[in-house]
Design brief:
216 residues, alpha+beta, Glutaredoxin, Glutathione S-transferase Yfyf (Class Pi), Chain A, domain 2, 2 domains, four-stranded mixed beta sheet, globular
Length: 216
């Protein structure tokens, strides 16, 4: 059965590969599974047909036969469980990789998203600079902890896993902020993720959608 995912018809990420369907595309490319993409407008995302798949009216979703999933973390976990290549065979190593998936999404990503929200929606507030400073210090604290744990290793726990896929995806949101540059091993870690052929195929596929929408 063909896998179908949903993605933005016109992504607000400007073709930078930050929309969360990118994580699902990357996972499918890593495990060598073909997939179709159904593109949605912002209006269509809030209509009943899509809300039946994703109750919060967001992307991505995943459909395969009679299975429908939402939330990129859950979708990548499902892909990693069903297909070899993203989770180790050893039970303990597998559990650690899953732990890193949760760490990326629940520990690292929230302050990074807070920074994006502040820059996008709160610039005109009198307290903006103070809030931005507080959020960036929270991010630095997490980056410092992660940098210390990664050390000189290529990946978080042995071979590349779904934990690295999520962590790299989250850290990519800091590109251009200057924050990531303060931690050379993390910058190199992200670059290794971007250099993976599966990442490049996923990025090119998402970029092609943005380019087509921009020229249309």
């Amino acid at each position: 059965m063909t896998i179908t995912i949903t993605a933005f018809e016109r992504s607000p990420d400007g073709g930078r590969g930050l929309a969360r369907d990118m994580r699902v595309r990357w996972a499918l490319e890593e495990v060598g599974q073909p997939y179709d993409v159904r593109l949605l407008s912002f209006k269509a995302m809030k209509e009943p047909a899509h809300l039946a798949l994703h109750p919060f009216g967001q992307i991505p979703t995943y459909e395969e036969g009679d299975l429908a999933l939402f939330e990129s973390g859950a979708i990548v976990f499902h892909i990693a469980e069903r297909h070899a290549g993203l989770l180790p065979d050893d039970a303990n190593a597998r559990a650690r990789a899953i732990t890193w998936m949760f760490a990326a999404l629940t520990t690292m990503e929230p302050p990074i998203v807070d920074r994006e929200i502040a820059r996008l929606l709160e610039r005109d507030e009198t307290w903006y600079e103070q809030r931005l400073s507080v959020v960036e210090e929270r991010i630095r604290k997490r980056l410092s902890e992660l940098s210390g744990r990664l050390g000189a290793a290529d990946w978080l726990d042995g071979e590349f896993s779904a934990g690295d896929l999520h962590m790299v995806s989250v850290l990519l949101r800091l590109k251009g902020s200057g924050l990531l540059n303060e931690y050379p091993n993390l910058s190199a870690y992200v670059a290794r993720g971007e250099a993976r052929p599966a990442y490049q195929r996923a990025f090119d596929a998402q970029l092609a959608v943005f380019t087509a929408a921009s020229s249309g």
